[in-house]
Design goal:
There is one protein chain. By secondary structure, this protein is mainly α. It is built from 32 helices and four strands. α23 packs parallel to α25. It is elongated, with a radius of gyration of 40 Å. 39% of the residues are buried.
């Protein structure tokens, strides 16, 4: 009896196969036209997305705490235990295989889930940090992106393969001995089933059969014998073929797109460059290393590129900090400089020690970037400390020291503010003027917390570079240094330095009293910026004493019209602090020069109500001045004198 239900010759077989394919194509066309195909594909897509979401949820609840190295250790431990007890306690091996498989599948699905969000970020629909209008925050990628990458995918793949091998071994030892065919009478072990999994996964069965038929190599390996083993094998191969390998190819594609975007970033064409610049932050942390490495091919960078590149990298967010810290020791100076600048923009307090070390770098560019970055970090620390003091209850402010250091110091180790200020003090002695200037400016942003840097700042007041002298003078005022230290700068041949010293003294307020007399002299400086800065400093120092007022007002008796006008203007710039100068200013209202009269009227108005008893009668008279400009200013000045002026006018 013929064992075949239907037996066809070769010609009939060919026609049957072709006819079947035609029928299948017709059925697919009909199903497509009726919409059933779209419905089926949509259902399959929803089921796939549900499976990916579920796998990610399982991974998030159970394995999100472990990086790929810890995960690899757990998987290896389960596999070793399972392989050792498979012969004696196969049910234990079955449990180990199940756990390993679940871990591997969940990790693979987690990678797929996060890779989908990476794609959303690449398309510009989401952002890992600071989303713009029309974008959503890629929360999953921002939280787990640093853990879920190709290393985890590779380890999870190996875990699935080894777990599947252990599963087959455990099934063979329990309920499935007849599911598999073994050529000899030996007992197959875990290694045999591992070879079984790899042979079928990589489709090596046909190659081995050809080698055997040609009598080249004879191999005896485990093969499926019954449908349960075939079903398991089909599911195993389908997972890798349809899903996992697709994700690997997607990662390769992503790397190619990133490389092309980086190439476009350096394009001389503005439109191409702008498009790449806007796209780079969407790649997340993966863009950091390739972009910085691309800098090694650049012999020089323009100032615009040096300023813009850290902004591009900082837009990715704080998740870039570990990678940037690694590049602080890169052999290329541009890479180190950009990494330091980006860490400063991110205010990465945890990287303060590494940035501080860069202050001693051999590259001028790196030292300059490091000084700027430390200034940003130190300023943010001062701001954060003020916020903590405001939010902390009063009793907590009194008692925190009873329990050790503040929490932010304990968590971060050394105090980032102290580290930053110490490194900036070192940078004040840098051989490059630009670095000294940057360090002085950074210390100024810190404020009173950096008052210990005064000893290093004072020598810079005599620096050969004018910009350094200016910045040092302003910084001494910003941190609350001694006013006497700035006195020599008020005689500096550079008007910019004199103005900077006066600006620094203004910040000292009443503490600038010891040098007010010298500031008074600058009220008649030939440079308008110096006169203005000196007037602001005198006003901030408080009311002038009689001697200072007399000395300043003496200029109103000068024979030179310009000197008299400048003196009146200076007294007005001082404002209420020059109240004792009201009488000579009132006398100047009768000056024969209309410019002097106008500046005297304006000065009395700026002094305000404190000068009213002396000034109002003269201002009322000035309302009838022959010069309309003087009379108009007199009306405005009376408006600054309060109620007494109104009564006098009536």
């Amino acid at each position: 009896m013929d064992p075949w239900l239907v037996r066809l010759d070769h010609r009939s077989s060919s026609y049957s196969i072709l006819s079947t394919l035609v029928v299948v194509a017709v059925v697919v066309g009909v199903v497509y036209q009726t919409g059933l195909l779209g419905w089926a594909l949509g259902l399959f897509g929803r089921f796939t997305r549900w499976g990916i979401r579920s796998g990610f949820g399982l991974w998030e609840r159970t394995l999100s705490w472990a990086d790929w190295t810890v995960y690899a250790g757990l998987s290896a431990a389960l596999l070793v235990v399972g392989a050792l007890v498979a012969d004696d306690q196969p049910w234990v091996a079955l449990a180990c295989a199940a756990v390993t498989l679940v871990m591997g599948l969940a990790s693979c699905l987690a990678y797929m889930f996060i890779d989908i969000e990476r794609y959303e970020v690449e398309r510009g629909r989401k952002a890992v940090h600071n989303p713009t209008k029309g974008q959503a925050l890629a929360t999953t990628l921002a939280r787990y992106g640093h853990r879920v990458g190709l290393p985890l995918l590779a380890v999870a793949t190996a875990s699935v393969i080894c777990g599947f091998s252990l599963l087959n071994k455990a099934l063979y030892e329990t309920v499935g001995e007849r599911w598999y065919r073994v050529e000899d009478d030996g007992e197959p072990g875990f290694v045999d089933f591992l070879a079984y999994a790899l042979i079928n996964l990589l489709s090596l069965v046909d190659v081995l059969n050809v080698a055997d038929s040609r009598r080249l190599v004879h191999t005896a390996f485990v093969q499926k014998a019954m449908w349960p083993a075939a079903v398991l094998l089909a599911a195993f191969r389908s997972f890798f073929t349809l899903v996992l390998l697709q994700q690997v190819f997607a990662s390769v594609r992503q790397g190619r797109i990133l490389a092309e975007t980086i190439t476009d970033f350096w394009s001389p064409h503005e439109s191409i460059h702008d498009r790449a610049r806007n796209a780079l932050p969407q790649f997340g942390v993966a863009a950091i290393s390739p972009l910085l490495v691309s800098l090694r091919q650049m012999s020089s960078l323009t100032k615009e590129q040096r300023d813009r590149l850290p902004q591009v990298l900082a837009a990715i967010g704080p998740s870039t900090v570990p990678t940037l810290v690694e590049h602080l020791t890169d052999p290329h100076e541009h890479v180190r400089a950009i990494a330091a600048g980006t860490l400063g923009l991110l205010q990465a307090r945890e990287a303060t020690a590494e940035i501080a070390a860069a202050v001693g770098d051999a590259s001028d560019l790196v030292r300059l970037s490091a000084a700027e970055a430390l200034g940003r970090i130190a300023a943010s620390e001062v701001k954060a400390e003020r916020a903590r003091l405001v939010k902390r209850p009063r009793h907590a402010r009194r008692r925190w020291h009873l329990f050790g250091r503040p929490r932010h110091e304990t968590e971060a180790g050394a105090d980032p503010l102290a580290l930053a200020v110490s490194a900036l003090q070192k940078a004040l002695g840098d051989p490059l003027a630009a670095v000294r200037c940057q360090a002085a400016g950074a210390i100024g942003r810190v404020g009173a917390a950096a008052v210990g840097a005064v000893d290093q700042l004072v020598p810079l007041l005599g620096d050969a570079d004018e910009t350094v002298r200016c910045r040092a003078a302003e910084t001494i005022g910003e941190i609350g240094g001694p006013a006497e230290a700035l006195r020599p700068c008020l005689d500096d041949p550079s008007a910019a330095v004199r103005a900077a010293a006066a600006a620094g003294l203004k910040l000292l307020g009443g503490d600038a009293k010891p040098v007010v007399e010298k500031l008074v002299e600058l009220l008649q400086d030939r440079d308008e910026a110096v006169r203005t800065a000196a007037a602001d400093a005198v006003a901030a120092a408080g009311p002038l004493n009689g001697d200072s007022t007399t000395k300043l007002a003496a200029g109103l008796a000068s024979a030179d019209n310009v000197v008299r006008a400048q003196t009146a203007e200076a007294l007005g710039n001082v404002g209420a602090a020059a109240e004792h100068a009201a009488p000579p200013l009132v006398e100047a209202l009768d000056d024969h020069n209309d410019v002097v009269r106008a500046t005297a009227v304006e000065a009395l108005g700026k002094i305000g109500e404190t000068a009213a008893p002396v000034a109002v009668p003269g201002l009322v008279k000035a309302l009838r001045d022959a010069d309309s400009w003087v009379s108009a200013l007199a009306a405005e000045a009376l408006g600054e004198m309060g109620d007494g002026a109104g009564e006098s006018v009536v």
